[in-house]
Batch of 2 targets.
Target 1
Amino acid sequence: MPTAPAGDPWRSHTVRIEGVVEEIPGVRTYDLRFLDEAVARSYRFAPGQFNMLHLPGIGEAAISISSDPADPAELAHTVRAVGNVTDALARMQAGDTLMLRGPFGRPWPLADRTGRDVVLVAGGLGLASQRAAIRELARQRSQYASVTVLHGAKEPSGLLYTREYRAWKEAGLVVRSIVDGLPASGAAAGSPGWDGRVGLVTDLLAELTILSERSTVLCCGPDPMMTAVARTAIRQGVAAEEIFLSLERNMACAVRHCGLCQFGPVFVCQDGPVFPFAAIERFLAVAHL
Ligand SMILES: Cc1cc2nc3c(=O)[nH]c(=O)nc-3n(C[C@H](O)[C@H](O)[C@H](O)COP(=O)(O)OP(=O)(O)OC[C@H]3O[C@@H](n4cnc5c(N)ncnc54)[C@H](O)[C@@H]3O)c2cc1C
């Protein structure tokens, strides 16, 4: 899969918002559809790739594609409102239009991992970059020895896509979630009756008995969490080359020109966002890189 669209990577296409789902407070999933039927027919992406969402006059933001690659004409993006573009997006509704260019970046390495135990580990909104992979793995479940999804969030109201857990489990995936803690008033914060695990997502990982040299770990979340996940997986027998992290860095062009997302000798936009842990371990140890 190419890491930038064929043709002009600067060319934005108009998309219409078909639907908006409020996932958790401050986070919405936007279902987008190309207005140009020819673009809709030719557009393809792989799980882990991202698009640049462009609001004319405001700016662009890199956002992972969170829908099923088997249906590339229906593009979902799950977005937390944190700044210029994402705040403006949060004020938009079904029927509104915006611009999109992509897809960009190296995807999760799913195709070469058939027969293996695949473990996806997500912290908070990191699950958005894995949802496309989860949908693909669920469809192709029989090709993998096992598929496990571990999701951690600060508190229960931060767990994403919980309404989809049932379908994932019915497809044969193991799904476990854990929260760092409970808010002072669970009911007030929208998390009454949480009887699940409290702790870190690395606790769930350390308990997995399937981890071995036959496992592949795919991880997305804050850098310190990803480093902790990688170290835990290595202690459980997973090879550093079989641990893949999706990095998030500020970026503007997505085509290796602006330099904003440079990370040591590589560019997150094109060399990543998905990297083998073994390739970036020493750069992750450098503060503020
Ligand atoms: C590959 C990739 C995938 C991503 N996927 C998603 C996703 O699925 N969902 C999602 O919600 N987000 C995702 N992000 C993050 C998203 O791109 C950023 O949050 C983006 O900055 C939002 O744009 P904005 O204009 O709304 O916010 P901005 O106005 O850019 O502000 C966002 C925050 O970043 C700070 N900031 C902005 N520019 C800089 C800079 N140059 N240096 C330091 N700090 C800066 C701001 O102060 C603010 O705190 C992804 C990022 C990458 C790289």
Note: The longest helix spans residues 223-235.
Target 2
Amino acid sequence: MDGLVIKSTGSWHTVRDNSGNYINCKIKGQFRIKGLKTTNPIAIGDRVNFVLQEKEDIGVIDKIYERTNYIIRKATKLSKVSHIIASNLDQAIVIVTLTKPRTSTGFIDRFLLTAEAYHIPAIIIFNKIDLYDELLWKKHNEIKVLYEEIGYQCYEVSVLEKINIDQIKNLLKDKTSLFAGHSGVGKSALINELESTLNIKTGEISDFHKKGKHTTTFAEMHDLSNGGLLIDTPGIKEFGLINFEVSEVAERFPEMRKYMLNCKFNNCTHVHEPGCAVLKAFENGKISYSRYKNYLNIINDDYFSEKQFN
Ligand SMILES: Nc1nc2c(ncn2[C@@H]2O[C@H](COP(=O)(O)OP(=O)(O)OP(=O)(O)O)[C@@H](O)[C@H]2O)c(=O)[nH]1
Ligand SMILES: [Mg+2]
Ligand SMILES: [Zn+2]
């Protein structure tokens, strides 16, 4: 029987079959994707085939259908293994807060890069705008304009004050979407607000660190009543990138991609080469400082230290 993986907790996977039944499934044997070392062979969003073990009331997954795409990361940049956050997505949404907790542009850019690598439309939702003072609004507007100019859709939301929730409902309609972001940004709270029948556990922000407490521990796909599937995920501390080639990194920055064809050398890393069209665009203000800085950070972790420019 065919089904969709809607939750994974280690060795058990909840699969929904085409008639809407939920079956607890295990995996048979080993699944390995060539060249990909992952901690999870089955990811949420996977379409699978399983065999029902009638006596036990469980299923055994024996096949994963080819993934159209996926979002993947390493726990930290030093980890050897990767984790597939979710597969077969129509859109990947990063929930960002500028305070409680603060999301850095480095985190946003790593997320966007990964989505670009698999051609998944990426969207940014800024939550907790109720907490903004004048300074944060200023910062917010700068960041929002920056990403919108590159071509990313941005939304401004407050779950607490129920601001712009309908916009998000429209955005998610009839699509399979992923919510990702740091712990405490309000991913689960926003889903509860979008779908009043759900009662997902949400957590406080710690007073001292102003960070979330990792309340959601497993990714789970939820049904939206106006059509659509939405994946809630555990908060991510660091979005470790899998090993992209340097040449690929610039290609995944849409505003760099535009210029790199004009670089003098076709193996240009856009750092110091003469005749580099990307550097020229950066010097002329066509590529933003924060994006270029994050690009350098990505291709060469310590090229610029975060401290120096934050
Ligand atoms: N002020 C304010 N607080 C919010 C808003 N949205 C969510 N919160 C609060 O932020 C806290 C964290 O929310 P969660 O939904 O648990 O965050 P999460 O992103 O799911 O976190 P993890 O499951 O740990 O990854 C809760 O106390 C929410 O009430 C908002 O728009 N404004
Ligand atoms: Mg949560
Ligand atoms: Zn170049």
Note: The CA atoms of residues 150 and 167 lie 21 Å apart.
